[in-house]
Amino acid sequence: MHSINNPEGTSLHGRVALITGGSRGIGKAIARKLASLGASVAICGRDPELLQTTARELSALPANVLFRRADVTSFTDIAELVHSTESQLGPLSLLVNNAGIGGPGFGPVQEKSEADWDKVVDTNLKSAFLVSRAVAPLMIARRQGDIINISSLAGKNTFAGGALYCASKWGLQGLSGCMAEDLRQYGIRVSVICPGSVATEFSGRGLKDATKVLTPDDVAHAVAMLATQGPQSFISEIHLRPVSKP
Predict the structure, then answer these.
(1) Domain 16-234 is classified in which CATH homologous superfamily?
(2) Distance (Å, whole) CA 28 – CA 99
(3) In the chain, what are the domain boundaries?
(4) Which of 105, 94, 42 is nearest to 70 (CA)?
(5) Is residue 165 among the annotated active site residues?
(6) Out of 28, 68, 123, 165, which one is annotated catalytic?
(7) Does this model's pTM top 0.85?
C-alpha cells in the first residue's frame, strides 16, 4: 500500500474514498477520476437506479465500488453508509462532501419559504457537517486522511436571487476553515473547492454558454490534485473558473 499522502505522485492505490452525491454530475466525475487513479470508491445518492448505473460504469474501470442509497441529512443513514464502506472496502482515508442542491436556493429572499431554507441548508451545509463528524474520528485514530468539501464561488460572492444558496455555501466555507484547524494536528487535511458555474443537471440560475462554463471533469481534476499532493503540503482552498469569462 502506498503512503496515504501519496509521495509517489498520482497513484491512489490502497486508498478508500467516499463521495456523497456520487451518482451524477460532479460527484460522478469525481468518483470516476479517483477510481481511475486506483482508489476504491463508495458513492451515495437518493436514486437507486442512477447509483447502480454509475457503480456499473465505475466497476468497468476496473475499480472496487460500493453504492448505497442514503439521505446525507440523516445521521442514521450516514452512520450505516460509513460502516458499510469500511467493512466492505477498508479504512476510509478520503472523504469528498459533494452532495448539494440549487433550485430552492435561488430567487428573491422575500419569496423563499422556511421549507426552502431547510432543504438547501440541510443538503448543502448540514450534510457536510454530519458526514465529516462520522468520518473524522476514524481518521483521527489513524492520524491521517483528507476531507474535501465542494463549495462554490457563491460562497465568496453575493448576487441578487441567491440568498439561500449563498448562505449555505458561505456557511460551508466557514465550516471547512474551522475543521481544517481542528483536524490538522491529527494529520488530516481539510480543503475546499470553489467552482464557478459547471455544466451539469444542477438546477441553478439558468442556461449559460457551454463554452464558458466548467465541466464536471474540471472539478474532478482539482479533487485529484488535492488527493495526490505531497505529504508536507496543504492546499486549503481552490478557486476554479472557466478560461473564457461568462
Answers:
(1) NAD(P)-binding Rossmann-like Domain (3.40.50.720)
(2) 11
(3) 16-234
(4) 42
(5) yes
(6) 165
(7) yes
